[in-house]
């Protein structure tokens, strides 16, 4: 399924992530940006007419979850106990589930699958 016209490619919004002199501030600010993006996604997902963007959006979410799993694995080295490792595993599993949902969304549409094939037509 093609991306909707006028859409952005993942990573195309910024060439470089903003940096702060204080890495703790940068980490927290970036997490706040992620929260803001998730809130915008929730709002956009609630609107009608988004079906065309479903597979592409799920693909972006799949990549986002993979990045979050890697970031959590990196942060786990500074945390005691298995909590961060467990979180990274859960994010990775969610990413796999998101990839499967994307494949399903990109597959044949239900209304096309229910329609009988035309005689003499390939495909």
Descriptive report:
The protein has four helices and no strands. The protein is mainly α and 123 residues long. The radius of gyration is 19 Å and the shape is flat. The two termini are 16 Å apart. Helix content is 60%, strand content 0%. The chain folds into two domains: 20-49; 52-109. It has helices at residues 23-45, 54-76, 83-106, 110-113. α2 runs antiparallel to α3 (83-106).
Quick gist of this model?
The protein has 123 residues and is mainly α. The protein has helices at 23-45, 54-76, 83-106, 110-113.
Topology at a glance:
Blueprint: H1 23-45, H2 54-76, H3 83-106, H4 110-113
Give the termini separation. 16 Å
- H-E order: HHHH
Please describe the biggest sheet, giving its number of strands, its sense, and whether it closes into a barrel. none
Q: What's the count of strands?
A: 0
Strand content: under 5%
The helix content is 55-70%
Task: Quickly give the structural class.
Answer: mainly alpha
Task: Please indicate the count of domains.
Answer: 2
Rg over CA atoms = 19 Å
Low-confidence stretches: 1-9, 11-15, 115-123
Number of helices: 4
How confident overall, as mean pLDDT? Answer: 79
Principal-axes geometry comes out as flat
């Amino acid at each position: 399924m093609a991306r909707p016209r006028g859409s952005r490619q993942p990573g195309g919004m910024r060439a470089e992530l903003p940096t702060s002199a204080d890495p703790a501030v940068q980490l927290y600010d970036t997490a706040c940006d992620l929260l803001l993006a998730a809130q915008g996604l929730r709002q956009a997902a609630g609107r009608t007419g988004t079906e065309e963007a479903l597979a592409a959006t799920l693909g972006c979410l799949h990549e986002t979850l993979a990045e979050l799993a890697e970031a959590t694995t990196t942060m786990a080295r500074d945390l005691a106990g298995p909590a961060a490792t467990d979180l990274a595993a859960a994010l990775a599993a969610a990413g796999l589930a998101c990839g499967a949902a994307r494949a399903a969304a990109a597959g044949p549409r239900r209304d096309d699958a229910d329609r009988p094939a035309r005689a003499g037509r390939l495909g």
